[in-house]
Amino acid sequence: MTRVLDVRDLRISFPVSGGRLHPVDGVSFSLDRGETLALVGESGCGKSLTSLALLRLVPEPGRIDAGSVIQLGDTDVLALRGEALRRIRGKRIGMIFQDPMTSLNPVFTVGDQIAEGVLAHLPVSKAEAWERARGLLDEVGISDSAARLRAYPHQLSGGMRQRVMIAIALSAEPEILVADEPTTALDVTVQAQILEVLDDLRRRRGMAVLLITHDLGIVAGRADRVAVMYAGQIVEEARTGDLFARPSHPYTQGLFASVPRITGPVTRLTPIRGTVPPPTAWPSGCRFRPRCPQAFDKSELPPELMTVGEGHRMRCWLAEGDGPIGMASVLPSHPERSEGGIP
Amino acid sequence: MAWRTPRGRAGLVFLGFVAGLALLGPALLPDPFRQFDLLELASTPPSAEHPFGTDQLSRDVLSRVVSGARISLSVAALAVTLSLTLGAAVGLVAGYWGGAVDAALMRLVDGALAVPRLFLLLLVLAVPERVPLIILILIIGTTGWFTTSRLVRAETLRLREESFVRAAEALGASRRRIIFRHLLVNTAGPLLVAATLGVGDVILLEAGLSFLGLGVQPPAPSWGGMIMDARPVLEAAPWVGIFPGIAITLTVLATNLVGDALRDALDPRGA
């Protein structure tokens, strides 16, 4: 497998009176060619900010701290300036935004907006760019593409607009596609279609996909690996099957317990108590501690990511196996620094 | 867009009428410089021959009002175009760039706004003996963009946070492209409204300057200048000043009607 993206120790900080906040605090992950990694977490956990950082689009006055690494193939993204930076946006990493209603410019036609990405990066004429735009619309499953090119965003349905967004993200043929909540604003039936389009493109083009979502339901069957984020950190990372079979971190277990199940005995939903604290109120030690039903004395110390199975790690002291509740599946190991990659 | 409301329609029809008259009128009407009664040089009241009467130099007032429309409208159009261009450019750059660039440009605008425009114009225009029309247009245009730039900046600040701007950035669009394509086109609404309202302002300003003898120079007919010329005879021959006055009032009223109608039409909440 070719490694296309390596993020290590990503820290993003914002100035506040009397110091700096870190809404993203030491996130590491990697992405191989043709692979889908899902980044799962609730609102405010830092997942969207992480995705924006990949293209250095962290909104002002946020900063990516020194010591962070974003390695895109052999390009050090954090060393890029000006024109070099512009050239990776859209060209190496394509981005799909959450809300297709507001992410398209209302005053330009669909064709204009797709061709814009083509023209920004590829040495083609305007006519060729439009021809490519038509091909892309075909590829994302929009029928009557020649006519749709001349449509304005408000003339399209939500699902169509999201397909257009995908076509735009693909316009300069990126090797990585970042999809930030691509289906949140859509009807359930349309959600499945959009995810199908993404999956299909990944397979055909051999792209890597970073799928950012709060919805565990869309992760199953789509992603190869899942990283669960909580309060600016990855708290659990595993192959999708392993995560669904053996969710290990109390937060992940809580997420599963709060999703209604169609099969199995009828049980009461158990939501995670409390709410996600804002970055200003993150507790010391384990950040999930105040909400964690399994918190114990060692939770006062900040845990590192620890191995609990093959390619399966979590940020919880329970991984050491000497907590109040023993976990049969937990392999004892020493705390280790996250390296981002999965063996 | 402005056509949708009766007010807007009335304004557009009248402006179209004035523009048509300014274009074609001089060919159909007597020479505005011609003096009909060289012996008496007296102003005659409106008659069949001279519907608006003649002025104290025995020139046809109707011809002069129509010729004045040419000058007044072209000064207004050119000066407004110039000030909109400047205002849009400064507002877009300040709003999109933000930070020190924004602060510097906006303090400049604050400073400029603190100086009364008419005094500034009087100062500049009082220096040379005769002011060519093009200089008058340049000066009115370059002193009229301050509020426009603030308007565009405010709009840009709002648009900058829109998702489609972020999407364009993520696609690798250059700053210039984002500013002059994505942002500019989306500020077209407020700009159009500012333009129509600005036309009324400039017509009044040019009239005021000409009235003070600093604008369009005689014998060229301009509405403001005609009112000034009419002052000595206003009691004996009121028609000399009243008709250009009516022309100013109606034209400014019409541009304001169109501006209001455009603003209503472009406001999504009112649609």
Provide an overview of this structure.
The complex is a heterodimer of chains A (343) and B (271). With 343 residues, chain A is an alpha/beta fold. Chain A has a domain at 106-173. Chain A has helices at 47-54, 82-88, 110-121, 126-139, 145-148, 158-170, 188-205, 216-219, 240-245, 250-257; strands at 3-16, 19-32, 36-40, 63-64, 69-72, 75-76, 93-96, 176-180, 208-213, 225-230, 233-239, 306-309, 312-314. In chain A, strands 7-8-9-3-10-11-13-12 form an 8-stranded mixed sheet, sandwiched between helices. In chain A, strands 1, 2, 4, 5 and 6 form a 5-stranded antiparallel sheet that branches. In chain A, α3 (110-121) packs parallel to α6 (158-170). Chain B has 271 residues and is mainly alpha-helical. Chain B has a single domain (2-29, 52-266), classed as Orthogonal Bundle (MetI-like fold). Helices cover 70% and strands 0% of the residues of chain B. In chain B, α1 packs across α11 (239-266). Chain B starts with 5 loop residues before the first helix and ends in a 5-residue tail after the last helix. The mean pLDDT of chain B is 81.
Main sheet characteristics of chain B = none
Please indicate the count of domains of chain B. 1
Q: Tell me how many strands of chain B there are.
A: 0
Question: Low-confidence spans of chain B: pLDDT under 50, at least 5 residues?
Answer: none
Largest interface: A-B, 30 and 19 residues
Give the CATH architecture of chain B.
Orthogonal Bundle
Number of strands of chain A: 13
User: What CATH first level of chain B would be assigned?
Assistant: Mainly Alpha
Oligomerization category of the chains in this entry:
heterodimer
Q: What form of chain A results from the Cα inertia axes?
A: globular
Count of helix runs of chain A: 10
What letter string, H or E per element, gives the SSE order of chain B?
A: HHHHHHHHHHH
Instruction: Determine the mean pLDDT of chain A.
Output: 86
Cα distance, first to last residue of chain B? 11 Å
Percentage of helical residues of chain A?
25-40%
Task: Specify the structural class of chain B.
Answer: mainly alpha
Please tell me the overall pLDDT of chain B. Answer: 81
